[in-house]
Amino acid sequence: MRFRHFPLPEGKLRRNEQFLRAPERRGVFGIGRVLCAGLLALTAAYGIEALLGMRGPVDTFFDSWVYNGLLVLASLACLARGFAVKTERLPWLLLGISLALWTTGDLYYYFAFSGLADLPIPSVSDPFYLAFYPVSYVALALLLRRRMQGFRGNLWLDGLIAALAVAALGAAVVFGEVLSSTGGSALVIATNLAYPLADVLLLALVVATFALTGWRFDATWACVATGFAVFAIADSAYLYETAAGTYTEGGLLDVGWPLALVLIACSAWQPIRKLEGVRDEGWQALTLPTFFAAVGLSLLVYDHFVRINTLALVLASATIAAVIVRAVLTFRERVQLLAQSREEALTDALTGLGNRRRFMLELDAALGYDGLSFALIVFDLDGFKAYNDSFGHSAGDALLARVADRLDAAVEGEGRAYRLGGDEFCVLAGVKNNDPDDLAKRAAAALTEEGEGFAVNCSYGAVLMPSEAGRLSEALSMADHRMYLHKQRHRAPVEAVGALEAARDGHPGRPADVAELAEAVGRRLCISPDELSKIRQAAELHDVGKLAIPEEILSKPGTLSGDEWEFVKRHPLIGERILAAAPDFGRAANLVRSSHERWDGAGYPDKLTGPEIPLGARIISVCDAFEAMTSTRPYAPQLESEDAMTELVRCAGTQFDPEVVAAFASVHLDLHAQLVA
User: Fold this and answer.
1) Are residue 579 and residue 634 in the same domain, yes or no?
2) Secondary structure (DSSP) of 325-339
């Protein structure tokens, strides 16, 4: 059973894709390129012989064996690519078949009609010759489809313009000459006209292919396009010279067909490269359509003086029409892009509200209307920094997007909301009875959000314009001043942080117990009153960072996984950031950060050792460990106080400061004696 029938992970899919390309690594492509190099060298030798115009056995050898051998070997090389490599098998097999068809026709022509003065038209060779074209068209289209990934629709129009212009030029130069010299039965005329039409279409298709690839040349497309172009040009030149009676057999022109087939065979053995991200921007968007428009226009002007055939005239006119359509579509796209860019420049990408630039523009416009009274209200989120630090920037961005949607809905119909940056918002609105307070309260409520372990509130300041302030700078300064006064009046008491921590931890008495023990140990170590106050404050809030830890981790009864443990180890840093954001708690932040360090350096987050750990943090660590061991925990059984004390002593010198453990033991004995008494 083949492996491709099973759904595989992404990594295995990549390995399977590499397996499909394994022939290139195993040397098949290398062998093919060596063969192609030999064919090119032989073609070059044939070209030199034709250029020198040798006669005799050498000329016979090259015209017979080398010429026909190159055709056969090129066909076989292209077919071999299709059979040997699974990737892009069908396009290369079709190309090989097209070369084989043309080679078959030419071999029959050589062996059947060589030396005859009067050639039959049509002959057995003509179906093989003509079959080359449709098979090549299909193969080229399939190869283009396999290689192209994601290109814009305008490239199709560029391809059409290029094809029409080249077809018009070819029809004017070759088709008219062949048409004027063709006579005989209807079948003879049809056969003679089929070749120039097919060559013109082939050359147009090659040019269109390059237009569709964004005019980018890699080895495959360079070889295949050059090969088809050489073929079409050589065939067209042959038809023209034959019609004009100037063709000489065995000349340099005869090199064109084997060279074309060898180049197409060489394209088959080039590395596979996908054409991704093809763009229709830059110089190609204007230069190339203009060039092909000039070709079509030149033919129309030439027709004014010397008449060209009807087919060329129609194709040239169609080229101009396609260029006009391309110009209209390009102009429309540019107008749409300009409008989109202007809107993006005035819109906050995260919330979709107007940004500071739009706010300034619309405020200036509002100030320009005489007699218009409106309110400028600025908002600042309280507690957002702590939320962002605790839950991460992604969660913070999501919260900003949610409150912005609510703010926009709250002021809809009365004004417009803006995000000035960070957690600052603004509203411009018309007011009734010169009282913006109702609108400001509704907007502030929209910017408020509470949940488990967090509360984000809002402070605001409003200014009436132009009655209270007539200039932008004056209005913003006044609104900011009022907003900060509102912030000071409504600031949540910082003690609530400790309550939140205790509630989340599931032991409302624990922070207070740890704080009492830490203060007692600090007194036993003769620490100054100011430092004792700091230690007590830090002991009350040392686990505030656990607000950011999911409940399922905190209450997990078994051993934590590696990822869960890494999550837990972040909470001292989060606690430090939360406390540092509150002026009243800033001095305790560094003790909270170090409260889980170990005396031997195996703690976290900074792996401090011994005296490097602040003394207050060492005290909190011992007291917190004792309270944790003597409390009910989901991950470990509760210990008696004597057993917990034994564990502290055992870990003195490794996890805990021995001096602090000794001081704690003394405090514990005193407390135990008081209980017994």
Assistant:
1) yes
2) HHHHHHHHHHHHHHH
Region of residue 252 (left: phi > 0; alpha: psi -120 to 50; beta: else): alpha
Helix axes 571-580, 384-391, angle to 10 degrees: 170
Q: 215, 288 in Cβ contact below 8 A?
A: yes
Identify whether 180 is part of a domain.
Answer: yes
- Identify the CATH number of the domain in which residue 633 sits: 1.10.3210.10
First to last CA, the chain: 84
> Does the pTM exceed 0.70?
no
The C-alpha atoms of residue 69 and residue 58 are separated, in whole angstroms, by 15
Residues 166 and 106 in one domain: yes
Q: 323 to each of 81, 165, 283, 443, 579, how far by Cα in Å?
A: 39, 10, 15, 54, 67
For residues 230 and 196, the answer to whether their CB atoms sit within 8 Å is no
Residues 379 and 513 grouped into a single domain:
no
Q: What are the pLDDT digits (tens) for 159-218?
A: 667 667 766 776 776 666 555 655 555 566 566 666 666 776 676 667 766 666 656 667
Q: Are strands 275-276 and 148-149 parallel, antiparallel or unpaired?
A: parallel
Residues 534 and 487 both lie in one domain: no
Sequence letter at residue 295: V
Which amino acid type is present at position 487?
K
CB 572 within 8 A of CB 593: yes
**623 in the same domain as 487:** no
**Angle subtended by helix axes 472-489 and 356-367, to nearest 10:** 120
Which residue in this structure is represented by tokens 């996890």? 655
* Rounded CA separation 544/497 (Å): 7
Cβ–Cβ under 8 Å, residues 267 and 220: yes
Q: Answer whether residue 7 is part of any domain.
A: no
The three state secondary structure string of 1-48 is CCHHHCCCCHHHHHHHHHHHCHHHHHCHHHHHHHHHHHHHHHHHHHHH
Domain enclosing residue 97, as ranges: 21-329
Residue position matching structure tokens 């400790």? 498
Q: Cα 233–82–261 angle (5° rounding)?
A: 20
Tokens at residue 509, please?
């008495």
Measured between alpha carbons, how far is 628 from 638 in angstroms, rounded to an integer? Answer: 8
Do 305 and 361 have their domain in common?
no
What digits encode the pLDDT tens for the residues 316-372?
A: 888 888 888 878 877 887 788 787 878 778 888 888 888 888 888 888 877 766 667
Question: Per DSSP, what are the bridge partners of residue 376?
Answer: 428, 463
Same domain, 545 and 401: no
Which residues, in sequence order, are bridge partners of residue 379? 425, 460
Q: Into how many domains does the chain fold?
A: 3
Q: Three-state SS for 92? A: helix
Helices and strands (H and E) in the chain: how many: 29, 7
- State how far the alpha carbon of 49 is from the alpha carbons of 45, 166, 252, 417, in Å: 6, 32, 9, 81
Domain-ending residue, one of 425, 459, 491? 491
